Amino acid sequence: MLTLTKRSYRGETDLEAIVNLWEACEAVDQLEQWTTVSELERDFNDPSFDKQRDLQLWEDETGKLIASATLWHPLGELTDGYLGFRVHPDVRGRTLEGEIINWGEERLRELAKEQGVTSVKLRCSSRDNRFDRIAILQENGFSADRYFLTMERSLEEPLPQPQIPAGFTVRSVIPEKDAEAWVEMHNQSFIDHWNHQDLALEEYKHWRSNPDYRPELDLVAIAPDGTFASYCYSAIYPEDNKRSGRQEGWVNTLGTRRGFRRLGLGKAMLLSGMQKLLAAGMNLAKIGVDYDNPNGARQLYESVGFRKVYTWVSYYKQI
């Protein structure tokens, strides 16, 4: 009989144990999802995250950490929350996953009550080949509602030259100077996308303070009238590359605001971002995309050589 103790986060002393839990899960799941103490610190210091209320840990009778769960939610209006959890492979498939989901539901109800919201969705995701996790989600009332592709493209193959529309200028972002304009552009670019939630200025500033952030990989296209019209924000994660043995970079976010679409800006910014990754020594570019993106993002990526690697499925449960 497995005896479990649920508890809240106790601070930095828990970080190494959470890293070890991720390692144990990755050894079995092979999702290329690792973490470090410094990455967890940055995540947990996100302005939208309450370390004492949005994080829960489970230990066995020896004090070993065997599960962790987080509930992520926006700083602004609450429409849904994202439940992330990891369970040690040795104790999966019992009742613990159900207990974790129940905790996520209760935490989301608590948030909804605080904000006076009557209907919210609890979300969770799974790789499409994680049949054990999918079965657990379905058994606990979750339904699939969206599919996301992870795609990659070799940077060792020739890259077309970006064709910047006449009158537009492309430069690297200056976070201290451009923060408000960038956030406004981002929110306007994704306002008509599935499940969009506005990015808060505080969150932008938090993530641009990441030591791995490289301004030369953060590009913006500025219209003749000075409007921030399109952008490509790429990133390199040295720790992940060290573990995988690859030199890969991610095109994290690519967007064009309404009123500036169908001008070729999206393709030009994508190619510009890929060139920056190549110049930084990367030989592989990766990107994530909503399969049903309304503006043809998947087709754009395929047109410049990206191909699907795997699929993630978004699940939800009405609370």
Automatic annotation (TrEMBL):
Its EC number is 2.3.1.-. Gene3D superfamilies: 3.40.630.30. It holds the Pfam family Acetyltransf_1. This is GNAT family N-acetyltransferase. PROSITE patterns: GNAT. GO terms for molecular function: acyltransferase activity. Residues 168-319 form the N-acetyltransferase domain. It comes from Floridaenema evergladense BLCC-F167. It comes from the Bacteria. It is an enzyme of class 2 (transferase). Keywords: Acyltransferase, Transferase. The keyword Acyltransferase applies.
